[in-house]
Specification:
AI-2E family transporter; transmembrane helix; AI-2E-like; about 375 residues
Length: about 375
Amino acid sequence: MDKKKLSQRTSWFWKWFLNNQVVIALIIVLLLLTIIFVFTKVSYLFEPVGQFFAIVGLPVVIAGILFYLMNPIVNLLEKKGLKRTYSIILLFILVVGLIIWGIVVIIPEIQQQVRLFIQSLPGYIDTLTAKADQIFKDPAFKPIQEHLENSAQKILESVTDITKNISQVTIKGLGSVVSTVATIVIALITAPIILFFLLKDGKDLAPYLISFLPTKMRKPTGKVLVEMNSQLSSYIRGQLTVAFAVAVMFVTGFSIIGLNYAITLGVLAGFLNLIPYLGSFLAMVPVVFLALVTSPLMLVKVIVVFIIEQTIEGRIVSPLVLGTQLKIHPVTIMFVLLTAGKIFGIAGVILGIPFYAVIKVIAIHIFDWYKRISGLYTDDDSQAEQE
C-alpha cells in the first residue's frame, strides 16, 4: 500500500513538475537571472574586458561599416579578373583620393559657411525676436501674452542653469576630452588596417568560427550568421546610399532657391538621415530658422524643396535601395531609437536599428528551436496524424 501511494506521488510530481516544459523553462530563466545577478556582484572582474572593447570597439565598428560598403565593389573587381588584394589596394587609393578631394574642396567651404553662420547668428536672433514681438503685440495674442512671457522667463532661467552646468562639467571633463580624442585618433589609424584584412579574409571568418562548434550546431549557426550578415549589409549599404542621395538633393534644392549655407545644411541633412524617420525633420529645424529670418517667400521655397525631397526619397530612392528587407514595424523602430538613444546616446540612435535586426534574427531562431523541442506549439490535428 505504501509503495502504491509513493508511486502515485512520484507520478504526480513527475507529471506537474519534472515533465512540465513550462516549469523547466521557468527554472532555466531563473538560473539565467541568478547567473546575471552573480555577475553584477563581481563586475569589477570584467572591467579590463570592458576597457578592451571600449578601445577596440570604435575602429571595429568603423571598419565593419566600410566593409559592408566596399565589399561588393571588391567582389565585382575580383569577378572581373583582378586579384582581390589588388582590388582592395585600388579601392583604398580611390577612397583616399576622395577624402583628399573632400578636405581640399568641401571641408573649407563648410568651415567658411559655419564661421559666417556663427558671426551672423546674433543678427538672426535679433531679427527673429523682432518679428516675434511684432506678432505677439497683436491684440489677438493678448490673452496668452502673459503666459508666453512667463514661459520665456522660465526658459531663460533654465538656459542659464544649463550653461553654468556645462561650463563646470567642461572644466572637470578636460581629461575625458583628451581621452576621447586619443581614442578617435587610434580608431582612425587602426580602422583601415582592420578593414584591409576584413576585405581580404572576411569571407573565411564565419567558416573559421563555426569550425569550433559541435558538428550538429554548425549548419544552424551558419544559417543564423548568413541571415545576420544579410540584414546588416542591406541596412548599412542602404542607409548610407539614401543619406548620400538626400544630401545631394538638399544641396541642389537649397542652391537653386538661393538659401544661405546650402552645402552645410545639405550635408547635415544627409548625416541626420541616418536616423530613420526623424532625421529629415531634425535637419529642417535650422533650415526653417534661416528661412524665417530671411523672408516669408524663402520659407515657402524651403517647404517646397522639403516636399519634393520627401516625395523622391519616399517613392523612389528608399524603395529601390532599402526595400522591405528588415521587416521592422515603424512603431518598433521608434521604440528602438528612443531606448538606444537614452542608453547609448548618438551612437545608439545610429546603430540601434542594425543591432536590433541582428538580435531579432537570433531571437527568431532560438524561438523556432524552442518550438521544435518543447512540443507546446504543435497543433492537435497534426499531432493526431503523427500518432
